[in-house]
Amino acid sequence: MNQEYKCGICSEIHNDYPALAYPSPDSYYWLSDDEKIKYNAYLDSDFCKIEYPNQTDRFIRVVLKQKIINSQITLEYGLWVSLSESSYNDYFLNYNNENHQTQYFGWLNNNIPDYNFQESIPTTVVTKLGNERPEIFPHSDFEHPFVSDYYNGITKDEAEKRIHEMLSKLTE
Questions:
Q1: What is the Rg, in whole angstroms, of the alpha carbon atoms belonging to the chain?
Q2: DSSP state of 24
Q3: Rounded mean pLDDT of 92-101?
Q4: Helix, strand, or coil (residue 21)
Q5: Closest CA to 92 of 137, 41, 48
Q6: Distance between CA 64 and CA 137 in Å, rounded?
Q7: What is the pTM for the complete model shown?
Q8: pLDDT in tens, 23-67
Q9: If we measure between CA atoms, which residue out of 102, 6, 88, 2 comes closest to residue 48?
Q10: Ordered DSSP codes for 55-74
Q11: Which of 8, 70, 104, 132 matches a 20 to 30 Å C-alpha distance to 126?
Q12: Nearest to residue 89, comparing CAs of 56, 64, 121, 62?
């Protein structure tokens, strides 16, 4: 089912909501250019690694599908999660394997506007057949407004507000 959406930026009608994509994990985003060099920080479209002196942080790009109340459509996010070394290596080694299906534990590494993230949200990362990006599911027993909204849904007005805010940032 297509959802028509009048873009607040270009004023054109679009048939689907755009995905709200974050270009990097926050841990990478907040590094200065000098720190990116110092910590041998690597980022591409699906993987990120930061090598600190005492630890290495590893991230992958994932999808989260936010339910919209009284609608057949979802608001999709392109987010990043941190993985353990073994999970990251398994995903990396099987990245081009169209038959690879598994689950990993991951920590959300993007702050989404209108939520206070004093700590990261635990997630289950589910890989998919056909090399689609993995989808994440916040742990339902973790008490946080973002987790509650994920499982209970958000309104159409809230979804369109989030889209408008994200698109506005792109034009600043």
A1: 17
A2: S
A3: 95
A4: strand
A5: 48
A6: 7
A7: 0.88
A8: 999 999 999 999 999 999 999 999 999 999 999 999 999 999 999
A9: 88
A10: -EEEEEEEEEEEEBTT-S-E
A11: 70
A12: 56
Q: How far apart are CA 162 and CA 150, in angstroms?
A: 14
Using alpha carbons, select from 42, 79, 35, 36 the residue that is nearest to residue 60: 79
Spatial contact of 167 and 8, defined as CB atoms under 8 Å apart: yes
> 169: alpha, beta or left, given left = phi > 0 and alpha = psi -120 to 50?
alpha
- Tokens 């709200």, residue located: 20
The Cα 82–Cα 46 span in angstroms is 12
At 163, list the tokens: 């889209």
Instruction: Give Cα separations from 35 to 31, 42, 112, 148 (angstroms).
Output: 6, 11, 24, 35
Q: Looking up tokens 């999709």, which residue turns up?
A: 76
> β-strands 20-21, 74-83: how paired?
parallel
Q: 43: closest CA among 21, 26, 18?
A: 26
Pairing of strands 103-108, 56-67: unpaired
Instruction: Write the DSSP symbol of residue 50.
Output: E
